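Subject — a protein and its fold
Encoding — discrete vocabulary of local shapes:
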Amino acid sequence: MSDDLVKPLADDSPAKTFPERLIGIFISPTEVLADVARKPDFVLPLIICMLAAITVTETILAKIGAEHIVRMALEQSGRASSMSPEQVDQAARQGASFLGVFLHIAGVVGLPIILLLIAGLGLLILNVVFSAPAKFKTIFSLVSYAHLVLLLSALMEMALIFFGDPERFDVQNPTPTTVGFFLIPSKVPRPLYVIASSFDLFIIWFVILVAIGLAEAVGRKVKPLPIFMIYAGLWIVWVLGRAGLAMIG
């Protein structure tokens, strides 16, 4: 049988079920992402990831508290050292009222916006950089499924919230998957802390899967490595920019 006859039969085969894709994204990601590229859908993975983000955010607010987060941010920035205890308390209370509202909103809409931006960047990379057209729905579906691996990060974060020391919980480094988690912010230069906190193993895993997915979206006309390098390069520029801002205060 010729390849021309085999391919349509493969394309017409039913897509994997969501449970199969959910399990497969951890154990056979390339196969799952190829299936998503063939039969894209984003509703279920997006809902699952949003529910996880909302659960983590609401748990942080309930168990850790917005005031503690603001207080820790003041200490890490060095501003607390130039303030009296009363001023720190006042700033923490005032900041907590705003931060609580912001986190409630961000927990709901933050993740979809981030995934849309990552997918939009992927569309730009494929169409402009590599001249390999792809549909936005396909890319957004691939990004949504790739993000499912961060469910492990959410579970780890929940465990540390419930069983760890609330006074030491740091929203910038919630899990021991960054170098920043093991550093004491007051003991290292702020730019170094920003850099050490910016490279998370789960985020790297996610970006690798996005690169594989985008390669599948264009039939492997583009290899995953150059796509990953573009994402990584842009992220490094962003991190260095944040570190530069931290350096100048």
Residues 1-10 have pLDDT under 50 and may be disordered. The CA atoms of residues 30 and 203 lie 17 Å apart. The first helix runs from residue 3 to 12. The chain has one domain: 27-247.
